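Running this now, will post back.
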Amino acid sequence: MQTAIAKYFSARVPRYTSYPTAPHFSANVDAGAYKAWLERLNPASELSLYLHIPFCRQMCWYCGCNMRVVARYNPVADYTQTLIREIGLVAAALPGRMRVRHIHWGGGTPTALSGEDMLRAYDAVREHFDIVDGAENAVELDPRTFTRESAEAMGRMGCTRASLGVQEMDEKVQKAINRVQPLSMIEESLNLLRENGVKAINFDLMYGLPHQTAASLKETVEQSVTLKPDRIALFGYAHVPWMAKNQRMIPEDALPTPLMRFEQSKAAGDALAEQGYVRIGLDHFAKPGDGLAIAAREGRLRRNFQGYTDDAVPALIALGASSISALPQGYAQNLVETGAYTRAVTEGTLPIAKGIAFSGEDQLRAAIIERLMCDMAVDLDAVSARFAPLRPDFADELARLGGLAAEGLIELEGRRIHVKEEARPALRIVCAVFDTYLAESAAPRHAAAV
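Update: finished.
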């Protein structure tokens, strides 16, 4: 099986947190189109909100996110005010006061906001939306800069889940990515969170980092599970220095080979499974009683721009520079540059830069890809029935899938596809078969398949 997967080590395909994917967004979706989409939402339905905070207090050389390091707090305070204004603009475009089931704070580092500003932004959400009982309120954080003030603010706003960027605990690797955070620092962050009522904990780990080995990553896993996180995401580092200039600080000769990346991923995944964590989709792991594991068992697992989720609401409204909303009609992305974003919001305009409206078979193919990413299996006829009168024969796709079946990566029974467990690392290769937008010219924009 490793030989079959090795053929695809260097292939570059999307992570499929959406379909169509972001490289295919265009200015055809503007503020007017987005406003019309918001107006047409069902006022009786529930929403998810994503708040993007594009600031960090320290730079990590591996980072590919939309963020900037700030030495002074003034730009962050100004951004908070703009974010609050955007919340009001979006709420005004909706057909009525709507209910919110999930809130996710991402970045950057959301806790780059002062505790006071985080509470002000949360109060703005409460002013314009009804947050339902039992709603999830999740915040990403950096243990190196996490403070008691931030923990107390998270407690006051009813934060239910925190996601900690751990990445790797080997000091040599940490120095190579400019993210030095000993185990004691992570433990201190966890203590602050739990003291303030934040019970559910996620860890982010990475493979493919400079100087990293399968042994060092396995040791990181072993140290991580002693801290009892409920979920662990195991991401592959995407080295794209032509897009993320800070990655040029990472010496390429220190990066593991594609085979080494595969071995690291397998060693870490096997170690997590041995510790009782359930494999979720491509790269997530959860305790058996966690909501994500339950959703996976029940066939309710979903995938969005934040990764795997049990969030089933029909619309995700994203707020903040560069954030991407997912609505029944398509995707809309905010302006990336914070200055342009601020000017648009200050002028009373929804700060949309680009997006894509669903057309043709987009939603059908998105559903097929989502089921593959979530269940590692899909019945083409069952999914197609939900999108009648579309009746694609998928002849070209089935021919390509036949090749993957011959290589032993999948089982193909008529129009039913099942990705073999040992072929899990090649899951995105199978999904790419259904991606009609994927072209050779776009490939360098995407991460390595394994």
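The two ends are 14 Å apart (CA to CA). More later if anyone needs it.
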